[in-house]
């Protein structure tokens, strides 16, 4: 538990560039990179840049990054993967002119949820995915503000899951994301604050 070294993960798809600096991991996404399965659009994209390591039961993964998006569907956050057809991505996405906090939960077909967070631009965002029993609870925040509940999604309790930071640039080249932290910590004790 604790800080996850950048070198401990394996990429689902290699980005244009990924280098460790004193500030964190700087990743440049490939143009057209994305993760989506069928729903509404009819296509399958499995070209996301996700740096993954094991996520056992009763643990949570936290990923922090600097939010600096400018193009349609620029995105970054945390990615959980069971296989090609079962995965979750959650974080911030630049959609229709604003930054929005959201998640895509995929079980053969993808869904999508977003909530605008325009005041998060230029700040450090942390996304947390907590695995416990048959669910994953996703929360996010900026700085030391309270956690916001993003999603509670089903996740097979017996599944072998990998998780870590991800980014995608579906509509442009040149998206560079600074990931400032990657941690594995104990799972949340409960769904609701006590």
Labels describing this entry:
194 residues; mainly beta; Jelly Rolls; 8-stranded antiparallel beta sheet; 18 strands; globular; DUF1349 domain-containing protein; ConA-like_dom_sf; DUF1349
Please tell me about this protein's structure.
The protein is mostly beta strands. It has a single domain (30-176), classed as Jelly Rolls, CATH 2.60.120.200. It is built from no helices and 18 strands. It has strands at 2-3, 10-11, 17-20, 25-28, 35-37, 44-46, 49-54, 59-66, 75-83, 86-95, 98-107, 109-110, 113-116, 124-132, 135-142, 148-154, 162-168, 176-186. The strands form three sheets. Strands 1, 3, 4, 8, 14, 15, 16 and 18 form an eight-stranded antiparallel β-sheet that branches. Strands 2, 7, 9, 10, 11, 12, 13 and 17 form an eight-stranded antiparallel β-sheet that branches. It is globular, with a radius of gyration of 15 Å. It comes from Microbacterium memoriense. This is DUF1349 domain-containing protein.
The CATH architecture would be Sandwich
Q: Please trace the helix and strand order, writing H or E for each element.
A: EEEEEEEEEEEEEEEEEE
Largest sheet: 8 strands, antiparallel
Category from helices, strands and their pairing: mainly beta
Compute the separation of the termini in Å.
24 Å
The pLDDT mean sits at 95
């Amino acid at each position: 538990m604790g800080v996850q070294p950048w070198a401990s993960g394996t990429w689902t798809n290699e980005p244009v560039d990924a280098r460790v600096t004193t500030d964190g991991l700087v990743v440049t996404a490939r143009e057209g990179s994305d993760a989506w399965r069928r729903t509404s659009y009819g296509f399958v994209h499995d070209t996301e840049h996700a740096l993954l390591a094991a996520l056992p039961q009763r643990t949570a993964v936290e990923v922090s990054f600097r939010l600096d998006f400018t193009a349609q569907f620029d995105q970054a956050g945390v990615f959980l993967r069971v296989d090609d057809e079962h995965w979750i991505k959650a974080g911030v996405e630049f959609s229709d002119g604003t930054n929005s906090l959201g998640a895509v939960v995929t079980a053969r077909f993808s869904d999508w949820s977003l909530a605008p967070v325009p005041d998060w631009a230029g700040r450090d965002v942390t996304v947390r995915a907590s695995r416990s029993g048959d669910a994953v609870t996703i929360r996010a925040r900026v700085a030391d503000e309270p956690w916001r509940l993003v999603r509670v999604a089903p996740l097979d309790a017996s599944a072998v899951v990998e998780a870590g930071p991800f980014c995608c640039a579906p509509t442009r080249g040149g998206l560079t994301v600074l990931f400032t932290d990657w941690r594995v910590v104990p799972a949340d004790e409960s769904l609701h604050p006590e």
